[in-house]
Structures are given as C-alpha cells and as structure tokens.
Write a structure and sequence with these properties.
8 strands, alpha/beta, 11 helices, globular, single chain, 14% strand
C-alpha cells in the first residue's frame, strides 16, 4: 500500500477534490482554538486541517501534542499540519519527532533553483517518514504572525513551468501565487488572477492538490470561486479568528473562564459558518 493512502492530509484533500468542496486549514495559537475548531467540525460533520506556525513549536511546544490528540479522538477526519516551515534543520527535526501529518516546506524566500533543490531533498526526507509535503510556487508577498516577512521581496506569479518543476520535486500540495498576499489587502481588497488559478489546476492534472494562501478579508463568493477553480485546502487565520479577538476586546474584564467559554463559542460559530460556505459541512 502507498504511504499516502494512510496519510490523513492526503486522504482529506483527495476526497475534497473528488467532491468539489474546500477544507479549512486553520491556524491555532492555543488549546481553546483547537477545542472550538474540533467542536465545529464535529457539529457540521466536516473534515478539518489544524495548522500550527513554526513559532508555536517554541512558544507553546505542547500545542502540537494537544492538536494531535484532539485529531485522533475526533469523530470526523482531522489532520495536523505545520505551516510555512522555513528552517531546513527544523523541518528534519519535526519530521523525526513530532506528530504532524503534513508540513509546508516553504523555501520561497530562496532563489528558484535553491528553492527546488531544498524542497526535493526535504520531500524525500518527509515522505520516508509518512509525512506529506506542501510547497509554494512563485512567491506570495507579505507576512503574518509566525512566518518570515517577504515584503521586501518581489511577488512572483506562478506559471505552468513552476507547476511542473515542483511536481517533479515530489510535493503533494501546491500553493500558487495568483495575486494573493500574506496579511491584509488594503482598501481594494483581494484581486486574484482567476484565469491563472484555473490554468494551474488544469496543469496539475490530478497529480497534486491545490492550496489557497492569503485569505484575509476574502468574501464568501471569492472563496467559493477559488474552490470551483480547483482549490481544496483553504488556509485561514484572521478570516476565522476575528470573532475570537473581538470577544477578547469586548470581555477582557470578565473572569478568565468566562472569556474562554465565550471565545470558544464565537470561534466555533465562525468556523461552522465557513464550513457551510466552502461546502465541507456534511462531508464527513
């Protein structure tokens, strides 16, 4: 049996592509976030991908074990993913020692040839340990909590040649640059090259899954258009966590246990709303 047949992230996204829906891949910063997201997934009968930034491995080193335990005990398919891993040696350490189902090997800050070479080597390393790999083609501008700020580097849109080269490197999931940015978009909002996104998906020809990064401020209609274009893994951070932060600001003087309860409920409600929007509700 191919190791991918037992890899949770591969399983979740293969079914999503076949079913024509998206799956939330949501960043967590604490146990309350994990609790709310798993509750939402079970309530909506939706698959889910829990994501951690590499910064969490130092700030809250037990968080990945909490996420893994929650995923394993859930009644719906949930995988655990390390997002934007940019340190070569750290990726090898994670692959050997931590319970991740998949890792984004993000060498997009390197020149193209170095990016491809490191990605290929790390793909082989992770695959040998049953871990699937995501990579970023082109370069998505901007930065957000926990990842390197590429604001001083020019954005590079993904082209068909990029897709072929990264597929040849062995990746399982590709996150293209089609006008999306990490962080906030500003007054004009997101403006994506949808024709480019559709062409990228066609060129993949079912060999890898398509990932959407940079979803801050995305309206539901645009997100649904991206899924129709072939996206299955929908990375979200601020998009779903805004209600959590709003609750903190509004109730900061209340007892901590009350703040945790109201925050979990606010985040759970928002996660359920987005699971309905991207079509994953009722799919697990």
């Amino acid at each position: 049996m191919n190791w991918r047949d037992n890899n949770k992230t591969c399983q979740i996204l293969a079914l999503a592509e076949k079913g024509g829906y998206g799956v939330l891949a949501a960043i967590v910063y604490n146990v309350e976030h994990i609790t709310a997201m798993v509750q939402a997934a079970e309530q909506r009968r939706s698959p889910l991908i829990i994501q951690l930034f590499p910064s969490s491995l130092k700030q809250t080193p037990s968080l990945v074990f909490a996420a893994s335990a929650a995923a394993k005990s859930a009644s719906v398919p949930i995988s655990v993913h390390l997002d934007h891993a940019q340190d070569y040696e750290q990726i090898k350490h994670v692959a050997n020692n931590l319970p991740f189902d998949s890792i984004m090997v993000d060498m997009s800050h390197c020149e193209k040839e170095e990016n491809l070479a490191k990605t290929k080597t790390l793909c082989e390393y992770c695959h040998a340990r049953g871990i699937s790999v995501e990579a970023e083609t082109g370069r998505i501008e901007g930065g957000e909590d926990g990842i390197m700020d590429t604001g001083d580097l020019a954005g590079i849109l993904t082209n068909p040649e990029d897709v072929e080269e990264f597929i040849s490197s062995g990746v399982d999931f590709l996150a293209p640059s089609v006008g999306n940015v990490h962080g906030d978009y500003g007054p004009q909002g997101p403006e994506l090259d949808m024709e480019r996104l559709r062409d990228i998906f066609k060129s993949m020809n079912g060999r890898v899954r398509l990932v959407l990064h940079g979803t801050n401020d995305f309206p539901p209609k645009l997100t649904q258009e991206c899924i129709k274009a072939g996206v299955t893994k929908v990375n979200v951070n601020k998009l779903v966590l805004d209600p959590w932060h709003d609750n903190l600001r509004a109730n900061v003087t209340r007892p901590l246990t009350d703040l945790m309860d109201t925050g979990i409920q606010a985040l759970r409600t928002e996660m359920e709303r987005w699971m309905d929007i991207i079509g994953s509700s009722g799919r697990a």
